[in-house]
Amino acid sequence: VQRLEKFNSDGLFQLFPSNIKRQEINSKIEVRLEEIDLWNIFKVLETEMIITRTGRRLFPTFAVTITGLEPNINYMLLLDIVPVGDNQYIYEDSKWHIAGKAMPHSFKRYYVHSNGVQMGLQWMKDCVQFNKVKITNHSREHIILNSMHPYQISLHIVETSDIGSITSAKYNTFTFDETVFMAVTSYKNPDVTHAKICYNPFAMALRGI
Amino acid sequence: VQRLEKFNSDGLFQLFPSNIKRQEINSKIEVRLEEIDLWNIFKVLETEMIITRTGRRLFPTFAVTITGLEPNINYMLLLDIVPVGDNQYIYEDSKWHIAGKAMPHSFKRYYVHSNGVQMGLQWMKDCVQFNKVKITNHSREHIILNSMHPYQISLHIVETSDIGSITSAKYNTFTFDETVFMAVTSYKNPDVTHAKICYNPFAMALRGI
DNA sequence: ATCTTTCCCACCTAGGTGTGAACC
DNA sequence: ATGGTTCACACCTAGGTGGGAAAG
Lengths: 209, 209
Hints:
Two copies of one chain form a homodimer. With 209 residues, the first copy, chain A, is mainly beta.
């Protein structure tokens, strides 16, 4: 038996149990990552994302353009943040080093795009933004990650017209190499800090310094 | 044939054609208006709501607490703003007077609550806020009203687990006398202006004046 | 003239940044 | 001592108010 539980009003769900094999959608769906140049600037530096108690947004923002959906079939979009490898790390001598086995990834949470169930036509019309997703090390309200562990964003496109059948529906999964990042509670690499300040409008205050 | 068209990413839909009779939900659903004291303060003064080209929020905000839904059945919530009576008005000598027949209410638009389809249990858990709804006299992006015409908020609770079947699903409708208001492009009654400034946090700047 | 509509504005609310000191 | 975590803070972005002048 499988169960999907809603965790906040902004799209966070948790799946019990977490690992289920479902059937693929038989269709040529393509997903293009938006702002790929910006993602690559951070990838070169080895991206870090801050996690806080109260939840922190991702920057760069995860956004995609989708093609190849059936215009008149209903879909949902689920954002997923999955562990990369089996190790945790430390930052020493300006480099990331393995520091032993990873802590268990306890929570299998999905962020369901707030548009809910929509027809393919609607999803393909504009780029799909996941700008309100937040990551945390504690809060029940957001996606929970372990600090000093690497992760990667993946996207599930689920063919369903009923949110209740999400656990039995067909789906395709797309992962993005550019979105690999280290979860941290404070930035370790000063070059990452500088790039965040340089490109994130909310850090504008610190640009002159 | 009936058709539901999505108009923006924040829950606005338009129904073609607009008048359909559907079956009622056979259940003792009760809906309580939140902030009823605040609504009544404005009701005494004869509530005015500003409409602008770019869309203006409602104040007081429309929010409800719902009881009596089936916990494990899926529902959607649709906000509706319906004309009251058949006349348009003018404000003269500190009073509203009939100024002829109403203009036609051309657009039958619904604001679908952004939580989309949820089970009764979820809808009843917390009070349901419609704080992002906007009204306008022109914009395709929001609920279109005629200035100097009276309206009333109503709520449709639709029993459906599929947004696509919204036009054929069972539903119950709830109206709220406290929410009757006059759509205006600028406030006519100075007492209404004062009450808006007094109670709306976004008008805080004008409280000292 | 009179009344309604439009638009720019100052001034708020609301909330997203990294900082740097303190804590663990 | 070392290095990760937390928190109040100043400083932004983003956007919701009615005012008041101008336009219709």
